[in-house]
Write a structure and sequence with these properties.
single chain, 210 residues, alpha/beta, Rossmann fold, seven-stranded mixed β-sheet, 7 helices, 7 strands
Length: 210
């Protein structure tokens, strides 16, 4: 990776140490090796891995401020969960829980956590099965997991307890918001994506049932 890549990372995520940048580079190397064996992302996006997946995930950390307790649901290939873990590793007592029911993907997550010594715990379970066991985080993230109505249903136990959600969404997000209107009320901030001209990150607080 070049100085331009480091500068681009800081444009997206804010001030980032060299150590964090090095961890993300190491993550990319491990990811590419695993991606040859199991389907972690769409193969057509591997050529744009840094911008399309790593930087797209990294911008969530800036929006989460100095939070140290994170939860990522449907962690899949590690976006944004492993990127968050890499970026909060230098924060005192920071940690993230990663929930992924697919055993192969959970195995990948655990291997990366061990190899890069990331402050993360992998839960190879369905989201519904950890709703009462994972303590309420400050921030809950999800990317490319489910339509917003289902996302809110899955994350409600934490969001109703005061957690803030940061959800990556694409160009159809306004329809998804409309689809939630009959069931949910919440405070919303729409953050334009810094890596996808048609994307947003929805910041959702104070979730309550309509």
């Amino acid at each position: 990776m070049s100085e331009n890549a480091y500068a681009r990372l800081q444009d997206v995520a804010g001030p980032v140490s060299r150590e964090t940048y090095d961890r993300l580079n190491a993550f990319e190397g491990v990811f590419r090796k695993w991606a040859q064996a199991i389907n972690l992302v769409a193969p057509s996006t591997l050529a744009e891995l840094w911008e399309r997946h790593i930087l797209d995930s990294a911008q969530v950390v800036r929006l989460g401020g100095e939070s140290t307790r994170w939860l990522d649901i449907g962690s899949g290939g590690g976006f944004p969960g492993l990127i968050i873990a890499s970026m909060i590793a230098e924060r005192n007592e920071a940690s993230i829980d990663l929930v992924e029911s697919n055993r192969k993907k959970a195995g990948f997550l655990q291997a990366v956590v061990g190899e890069l010594r990331l402050p993360a715990k992998v839960h190879a379970k369905r989201i519904e099965d950890v709703q009462v066991t994972i303590r309420t985080p400050e921030i809950l993230s999800a990317r490319a997991l489910a339509p917003l109505p289902l996302l809110l249903e899955l994350s409600a136990p934490w969001l109703e307890a005061g957690t803030t959600a940061l959800f990556h969404k694409g160009r159809d997000y306004r329809q998804e918001l409309q689809d939630c209107a009959h069931r949910w009320r919440f405070d919303l901030v729409e953050h334009a994506s810094l890596t996808d001209a048609q994307g947003v990150i929805l910041e959702i607080r104070s979730l309550r049932r309509a």
